[in-house]
Backbone:
């Protein structure tokens, strides 16, 4: 591959990505190269194929290996009230705007197992807005969307989430929001009353609504720059004017063609507002 | 491309390494330091106060800038592409995120012989594998002299992994980096 003159494995990486696309329709071709390669090498170790080329040979003939590789290539790490200050910014910025509308549509793109979605639902409920909201929660991966729909998380995570919740400006007792089993925390089903969970691929699927706010946090970091540009186009088209865009703590719109279409509401928390 | 790694205690050593580099320094520098995952950006402003080079906490897809010190944000892995950085929230590696191995391995694979890895003082073996990758691809590995290290576990592991690493006290690493960045034509 031309862009990676110093990487003798670049051709093998490219070839395996093409094979995945051809045989499974899974399109990781424009994902951030170094991250994808790293995940491939993790799978080379797990499947004991020695090389990336060896892994490709296996993937060609064995659909189960193919599925396992696709799982390894997507990263689902998430948490409730991850980056508490982000949620404080939402209370200060998004909530007052939302109050002025009779009905609000929000989109969590790349929702993984749903922790972020339930955090939003809790925040909106505490602000008295939830009954007027519909949250669309989507992810590429069917399995994580299914998990998100269930809203059952490891009880062991609740201590951290409680702390996050409090630092995010939560005012109640976090334990009100779930029922504890010996192993799991089962979130109150009322929290997903106004959530629509669905599979949606940011690479290729079209815009499906116009939203007051879109959250796409820690998803596009796995894309290369040109794919980021494309997906930013999709998000831009799906956001109403003066709608909010929330990105992950270490993301920016500076490098995308849409940079000038947003104003920075919170530079620190990566909260932007579409101004044209 | 220069990549550097150490644990939080390596701040002082890091400063010694880069404080004498001129603002015209011709290579980008990327740093992964182990630190608490909720630590703020004090580290960046602290470093900036003492250095002539520009210090930045990396945002995803930031370009690799010559003469800049790019610091991995806490709780993200830092990886290099030919023109820019990428971040990942992939699981911690050996309990570390950012992981020095992840940064070094990506530098080895992207820059091959043009990668220079520097291992500073640190309390675990993170970085040893990445340093070996850099060397295997023909790059250069520099390790802080373990006798000058606050904690020698990381330098010793790196030297074990790369027996021909250049072992130097931190004050000398800066000069070495200058020489490697601007080799005099033979
Ligand atoms: C690291 S998680 C981020 C979860 C959550 N937004 C957060 O910040 O905690 C990234 C998610 O993006 C999803 N994803 C990756 N590529 C995608 C695509 N092309 N379309 C939709 N979702 C995608 C992955 O399946 C994964 O669940």
Residues:
């Amino acid at each position: 591959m031309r862009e990676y003159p110093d990487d003798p494995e670049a051709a093998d990486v490219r070839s395996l990505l093409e094979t995945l696309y051809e045989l499974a329709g899974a399109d990781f071709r424009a994902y951030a190269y170094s991250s994808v390669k790293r995940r491939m090498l993790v799978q080379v170790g797990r499947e004991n194929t020695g090389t990336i080329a060896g892994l490709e040979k296996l993937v060609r003939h064995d659909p189960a290996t193919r599925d396992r590789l696709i799982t390894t290539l997507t990263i689902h790490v998430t948490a409730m009230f991850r980056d508490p200050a982000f949620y404080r910014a939402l209370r200060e910025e998004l909530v007052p705007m939302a109050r002025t509308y009779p009905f609000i549509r929000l989109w969590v793109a790349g929702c993984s197992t749903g922790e972020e979605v339930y955090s939003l639902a809790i925040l909106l409920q505490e602000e008295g807005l939830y009954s007027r909201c519909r949250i669309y929660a989507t992810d590429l991966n069917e399995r994580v969307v299914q998990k998100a729909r269930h809203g059952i998380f490891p009880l062991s995570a609740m201590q951290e989430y409680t702390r996050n919740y409090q630092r995010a400006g939560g005012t109640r007792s976090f334990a009100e929001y779930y029922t504890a089993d010996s192993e799991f925390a089962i979130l109150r089903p009322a929290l997903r009353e106004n959530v629509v969970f669905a599979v949606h691929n940011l690479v290729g699927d079209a815009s499906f609504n116009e939203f007051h706010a879109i959250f796409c946090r820690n998803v596009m970091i796995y894309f290369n720059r040109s794919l980021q540009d494309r997906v930013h186009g999709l998000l831009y088209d799906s956001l109403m004017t003066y709608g909010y865009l929330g990105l992950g703590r270490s993301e920016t719109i500076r490098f995308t063609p849409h940079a000038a279409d947003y104003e920075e509401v919170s530079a620190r928390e990566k909260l932007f507002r579409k101004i044209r | 491309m220069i990549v550097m790694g150490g644990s939080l205690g390596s701040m002082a050593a890091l400063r010694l390494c880069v404080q004498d580099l001129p603002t015209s320094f011709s290579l980008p520098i990327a740093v992964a330091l182990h630190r608490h995952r909720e630590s703020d950006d004090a580290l960046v402003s602290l470093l900036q106060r003492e250095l002539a080079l520009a210090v930045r906490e990396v945002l995803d897809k930031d370009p690799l800038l010559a003469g800049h010190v790019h610091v991995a944000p806490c709780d993200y892995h830092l990886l290099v592409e030919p023109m820019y950085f990428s971040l990942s929230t992939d699981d911690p590696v050996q309990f570390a995120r950012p992981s020095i191995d992840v940064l070094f391995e990506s530098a080895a694979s992207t820059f091959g012989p043009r990668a220079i890895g520097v291992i500073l003082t640190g309390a675990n073996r993170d970085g040893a594998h990445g340093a070996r990758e850099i060397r295997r691809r023909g790059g250069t590995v520099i390790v802080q002299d373990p006798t000058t290290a606050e904690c020698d576990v990381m330098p010793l592991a790196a030297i074990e992994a790369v027996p021909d690493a250049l072992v130097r006290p931190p004050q000398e690493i800066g000069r070495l980096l200058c020489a490697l960045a601007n080799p005099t034509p033979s």
